[in-house]
Structures are given as structure tokens and as C-alpha cells.
Design goal:
single chain; about 210 residues; mainly alpha; Serine Threonine Protein Phosphatase 5, Tetratricopeptide repeat; about 70% helix; binds adenosine-5'-diphosphate; binds magnesium ion
Length: about 210
């Protein structure tokens, strides 16, 4: 993963979120306050602008800038959660214009840990964690199989992560929310797909589309 690929991933995520913003908001209308698409689109649009106007010298700096932008530009739960994850990813990476697939995977997990520390959600609470955790587990498992690939396994690991995020997202439907606004609904949150798990899938799918086109 180099600086160009890191930026291309975040641009692809911004594109996917813009295209699916109405769908994210519709999901949030069912169990939240109808703003997840608006929040995410505003945040990732600001990330796109920030990255276009900056020349980060390392991969870590790309993610640190993106994370700080999300934290400062997005109200609501998801902005600070994703922002903290991206900042932790950026800070965990070794300095330099390129990092290997293992370091990037460790960074994704550092991001998950920061997000969990901030939000306190456990697996099964019907949140971002339910897509993000299986994604990083699948990334690591695929990387062990594909470390000998030409790209060091990044493409295969990203594809596996996106598939696991999709499964985790779909598995939120029967869950009762225990964190965030949807938890106020109690049992009435059952039967709806979690908006944040859905945006997490979009972000991992964007990674797969960028790293393994
Ligand atoms: P808000 O709920 O403040 O309006 P958003 O609508 O942008 O914020 O984001 C809602 C999403 O945030 C939820 O669908 C859920 O996935 C995620 N979320 C909320 N609280 C938490 C938490 N404590 N940990 C992880 N994810 C959370
Ligand atoms: Mg909301
Ligand atoms: Mg809100």
C-alpha cells in the first residue's frame, strides 16, 4: 500500500458513500434519526477535499489527515468512530511512502481497537463492529494464505475483508441494538440492517475494488 493507493481507496469510499447516501439514510430512518447517509457523505466529501489539497509524505499521514477530518467535520456517532479508527490506523503504520500488507492489516486492527475503545461496543451489539471485526479477521486469514502473491497478498486480503464485512452487515438484521441510538428502540430494532455496519461494508468494498481491481 503506497500513498497513491491509500488516497485512491478513500476516494473510492467517498464515491461509494455518495452513491449510497440515500440508502444509508433510509436504513437510519428505520432505527435511528435519518442522517447516517448525510453524515457520512459530508465527512467523506470533506476527506476528499482535504486529501486533494494536501501532499502527505507517508501512507500513515494520509489516514491521520482523513481521520482528523472526519472527527472535526461530522456530528453524530459515526464520524468520531470512523475518524478515531482512521487516525489510529495512520499512527500505527511505519513511516514512509509504502507499507506492506501485514503492517496495513495490523493498522486496520489498531483502528478497530480505537473504535471499540471510544464506542464500547461488543460484537453482536448491532454496530460498525459487527462488520469491521470479521473484516479484519478475514483480512489476516487471507493474508496468511496469499503472502506470496505478487502484491504481497493485499488484494486477496482486501477481497476477503469485503466479503466478511458484507456477511457481518447482513448478520446485523436479526440483532437487537445495544449501543447507539438504535438501542433506544429495544426489541423494535430487530429486523433491520444496521446503517453503520452497512457503511463499513462500503468502505471495505472500496478497498477491495481499489487494491484488487
Ligand atoms: P447518530 O446515531 O449519532 O445519528 P449516525 O447515524 O451517523 O450517528 O451513525 C449511526 C451508526 O453508528 C449506527 O448504525 C451504528 O452502526 C454506529 N454506532 C453507534 N454507536 C456506536 C458504538 N458505540 N460503537 C460502534 N458503532 C456505533
Ligand atoms: Mg443517525
Ligand atoms: Mg444523528
Amino acid at each position: 500500500m503506497d500513498v497513491a493507493l491509500a488516497k485512491a481507496w478513500l476516494d473510492a469510499a467517498a464515491d461509494a458513500i455518495a452513491a449510497q447516501a440515500d440508502q444509508l439514510t433510509t436504513l437510519d430512518a428505520a432505527i435511528g434519526d435519518s442522517d447516517h447517509g448525510v453524515n457520512m457523505n459530508r465527512g467523506f466529501g470533506a476527506v476528499r477535499t482535504a486529501l486533494a489539497g494536501a501532499a502527505p509524505d507517508g501512507v500513515g499521514a494520509v489516514f491521520t489527515l482523513a481521520g482528523s477530518t472526519l472527527v472535526s467535520k461530522v456530528g453524530g456517532a459515526a464520524g468520531p468512530l470512523y475518524g478515531s479508527a482512521l487516525r489510529a490506523l495512520g499512527k500505527s503504520l511505519p513511516e514512509g511512502p509504502e507499507v506492506d500488507a501485514a503492517a496495513f492489516g495490523a493498522g486496520l486492527r489498531a483502528g478497530l481497537e480505537a473504535l471499540r475503545k471510544l464506542g464500547g461496543a461488543a460484537p453482536g451489539d448491532k454496530t460498525i463492529v459487527d462488520a469491521y471485526l470479521p473484516a479484519v479477521d478475514a483480512y489476516d486469514a487471507a493474508l496468511r494464505e496469499h503472502a506470496g502473491d505478487g502484491d504481497g497478498g493485499l488484494g486477496a486480503a482486501a477481497r476477503a475483508a469485503a466479503q466478511a464485512a458484507a456477511e457481518g452487515m447482513r448478520a446485523t438484521v436479526p440483532l437487537q441494538a445495544r449501543k447507539g441510538r438504535a438501542s433506544y428502540l429495544g426489541e423494535r430494532s430487530i429486523g433491520h440492517q444496521d446503517p453503520g455496519a452497512t457503511s463499513t461494508w462500503l468502505i471495505f468494498q472500496a478497498l477491495a475494488d481499489t487494491a484488487a481491481p
